[in-house]
């Protein structure tokens, strides 16, 4: 006999949890983008991607605010217009945070070498990359993150499965077999212990 505790509904990620995921996403993408940029401009096969710890706070907060925009705008305007709005917000956020950090000589980026820069804090050359990033963030990061749920149970989500002698499965049945059987029964659990809500 398999027992499964379902007394509590799975809960959405907290704002702090989502902020953390958005921060890591932005941090990773900046490293990858700067590595790709270095390769395209200087044909550097070392792919030296660079960023700053400040990027965690900047991207995490920026994307969390974009998430709120998405929830407000998704039924009111098409995706391309939303991405245009996100891009404008990104420029505003980049300029504001850059200006603040600049007061403490801590701004990690400098666009003065770009032709269409403003105060070295933002540059028009990045308009298309920011627009594309906004599209990716909405379609593949924010929407997927909002669907994640925490299962209020053991850490792996499966440790509460117990077998009793005589259930037909035998004492030696594997945890993987338990997972597969529960998934066939429609429990909705993924192998990582989270619930995927459609």
Number of helices: 5
- Sum up the overall morphology in one term: globular
State the distance separating the first and last CA atoms. Answer: 29 Å
Mean pLDDT: 82
Could you give the topology of this structure?
Blueprint: E1 11-12, H1 15-42, H2 54-73, H3 79-102, E2 117-118, E3 122-123, H4 127-147, E4 148-150, H5 175-184, E5 195-196
Antiparallel strand pairs: 1-4, 2-3, 4-5
Helix pairs in contact: 1-2, 1-4, 2-3, 3-4
Task: Provide an overview of this structure.
The protein is mainly alpha-helical. Helix content is 52%, strand content 6%. The chain contains five helices and five strands. It has a three-stranded antiparallel β-sheet. Helix 1 packs antiparallel against helix 4, helix 2 packs antiparallel against helix 3 and helix 3 crosses helix 4. The protein is globular. It starts with 10 loop residues before the first strand and ends with a strand. 17% of the residues are buried. Mean pLDDT is 82; it is low at 162-173 and 189-198.
In brief:
Helices cover 52% and strands 6% of the residues.
Feature tags:
198 residues; mainly alpha; three-stranded antiparallel β-sheet; two-stranded antiparallel ribbon; 52% helix; disordered C terminus
